[in-house]
């Protein structure tokens, strides 16, 4: 078996394209038949968002982007349709917009315990498909407990901002790389792919990088 390609993904929980990109990348990796090792990194699209945002996602998007609410609704309808094409059922009527810094800390908590990928999937699904709150410590602890984590220890970690420095380090690396939007994929620490590309595009890139790595191994 060849050594897995390292995949570093900068992503935000409150990013609809990040969940779509996750599904497309997973499909592309399966299509390519290339083993991968995935690590998620923190990126906040809107760090000034309050934990308890008053208003709908349409209202937030309109204000955040400075566009009419009708345009914001069209954008949401479009992304909901694209999400459905990869098997995701976004529920923007139930969605609770919030600050995601604590959720990113929880992802680092899970990574330290070897379960970051499970936690990432749970948070994205909770936010976009189930209308769960992913900004408050108690709610995040509930989600973590569903995966078998120690709820009290999760609360301890989040209240102490145990992994806030890790979140900030991810964000600093993103700035160094010039990453301005997510999802952003760094493949084998050398190649960057921006956005939720089609699964076939991911498959092609993975095959190419795997072939280059194999050739380099033979040459050495």
Chart the SSEs and their pairings.
Elements: E1 5-11, H1 16-32, E2 36-42, H2 57-65, H3 69-85, H4 101-112, H5 116-128, H6 137-146, H7 151-159, H8 164-177, E3 184-187, E4 191-194, H9 199-219
Parallel strand pairs: 1-2
Antiparallel strand pairs: 1-3, 3-4
Protein described:
- Helices cover 55% and strands 10% of the residues.
- By secondary structure, the chain is an alpha+beta fold.
- α1 crosses α9 (199-219).
Record field, number of beta strands: 4
State the helical fraction: 55-70%
Order of helices and strands: EHEHHHHHHHEEH
Cα distance spanning the termini: 18 Å
Structural features:
220 residues; alpha+beta; 10% strand; 55% helix
Could you give a quick summary of the protein structure above?
The protein is α+β, with helices and mostly antiparallel strands and 220 residues long.
